[in-house]
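Researcher: We're teaching a course module on how sequence relates to structure. For the next exercise, students receive a sequence and then see the predicted structure as C-alpha cells, so they can try to spot secondary structure elements on their own. Here is the exercise chain.
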Amino acid sequence: MRFRAIALFLSIAAGSLLVACSSGATTADAGPPRAGGTLTLAIGSNPDCLDPQQASTNASLNVGRQLVDSLTDQDPATGEITPWLARSWESNADSTSFTFHLRPGATFADGTPVDAAAVKTSFDGIKALGPKALLGSGYLAAYRSATVVDPQTVRFDFSSPSAQFLQASSTMSLGVLAPAAYRKTPDQRCQGDGLIGSGPFVFSSFKQNSEVVISKRKGYDWGSSLWKHPGEAYLDSVDYKIVPEPGVRTGSLLSGQLTATTEVQPVDEAQFQGNGFSEQTRPNPGIVFNLHANVTKGVLADEQVRQAVSKAVNRQEVVDTVLSPNYKPATSILASTTPFYTDLSGPLAFDPAGAARLLDADGWAPGPDGIRVKNGQRLSAAVVFSPVFNQNQSVLELIQQQLRKIGFDLRIDLRTTAETQQLQQAGNYEFIWYNVTRADPDILRNIFSTKAGNRSLLQPGNPLDTQLDQQAASIDPAVRKPAAEQAQRLIVEHAYAIPVFELRQVVALGPDAHAVGFEASSRLQLFDTWVSGS
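Model: And here is the predicted structure for the students to work with:
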C-alpha cells in the first residue's frame, strides 16, 4: 500500500479537527519573511532531557523537535501523513511490516548521510533505551527488527500488528539521530553531548535552569513537505530562556526582553491580544489531563470508589475557575482533537449526589472530620504530580475541595519530573496526574495495555486489552474506529482514569516574532519562524 492511500485514511480519520488557531497580528501584517536574528523564547521549566528520543515534557520536546527530522510528517490540519526523510512508503496487509524509501542528499550535523543503515541504528537505539524512551518505547513495543534493503530503503518488522507505526514515524520521539550519537550514553545525550540530528537546527549549549541555545544548520535543504519555504531555517538561533515564574515570563515579554513565551497563563492571556502582541494557540490531541488510578492500591482497588470520584469532579468549574475559555472540560479520556475520539460527556457528567449514593451503598460512612470511613480505613488517596504545567497545583487543589464535599480526602504529592517518572515506572502511586500528547488513538494502548505501559496495573486478558489490540491491528477505519471508541468507553466506565480537562498550548508573541507554528502534536515548529526589528 503506497503512502497516499494511508495518508487518505488518516486525513479522513482526523477530519478538520486539528486546526491551529491564532489571534492578533498575522505574518502578513509584517511583510515578507527575512532571514537572520535570534528568537528569544521563554519556557516554563528546565528540560528533563534534550534528546527527543528520551524526552517527555513540553519544555524538552519544544527544543528537541527542532534538532531532529522524522521519516514522515503529519499535517496539523488534516492528520494526513506526508513525506519528510522518506519520500514514499508501503505496508503489508496486516500492518506488521513497513518499508520506507529515503530521499537522497540528507545528512546529519556531523556530515554523515541519512541512509538506511543510519536509520536502522537509530531505531535500534530507541528500542535499546527501554523505559528511558518514555514515548518511543510504546510506539516500538512490538518492534522486532529493521532491515537495510538497500542504501536508501529500510524495512521495519513488528511481532504483532502495529497500524499506529506510520503516525509514530512522524513524531520527534522516533526522530533520527546519527550513528555517532550512540557512542555517547543516554545521560550524555540528555545534556546535548553527542545529540547529532539532521534537523534544521543544531545544539549549541545548555545551562541548567538558565537557557538552551540552538543554531541554524548551514546547508539544510531536506525539510518536511509541509513547510512553507525550502532551504535553511530563517532564524540564526533560538535562545530558550528557562523562566519558571509565569509573572516573570509575562513581564519580560511585555518589556521587550523576550521575543515570545510559551505557557501563557490563563490570567495573562488578555495582555497579549492587541498592541502589537499576538497569541498562537492549539489544542493538544491525545490523553487529557487526568487522575490515573492504580487499581491495586488502597481504596482505588474499589471500582465504586473510583466511579464516585469521577462523578464528584466538576470539570466545568475547573475550566471556569482556574483555566480560561481556551481550555475545554474533558469529555473522554482522549481529547476531542484526537482521531476516533468519542463523546462520553454523559458518563462524565458532574453528579455529586450520584457519587454519594455510590459511596453509601458501598459502606463508606461519614467520619467525624467529614471524611468517609469503612472498616477503620479512611477514604483517602494521594495524587503524585510534577509542575510541568503551571496550573497543575491549582487544578488539583480545586479538585481536592470538590472531592472533600463527598467525603474523599485527596492528598496532593508534589514531586520533580524525574521523581514522578520513577514512581510511575515502579507502580508506586495511587493516583498519578499527567497528560500525553499524540495525534493517534493508539496512545491508549501505549498507556493502558497490559502489554505496554499499564499504568492502571490491570491484569492481562481484560476486555480493554482486546479493544486496544483490535485498534492496533489495521489501518482500516472501519476496524480501528469502533475498537478505539469502545476502549475509551471501558476506561471511563471503569474509572481506570478520571479525565478532567483538555490541555491547550498558548504562546504569546511580541511585535518582532512571526510565524511561530505548531506541528500535529502541538509542539513548536520553528523552521518557518522569523523575527523583524533590531
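Model: If you want an answer key for the exercise: The radius of gyration is 23 Å. The chain has 15 helices and 27 strands.
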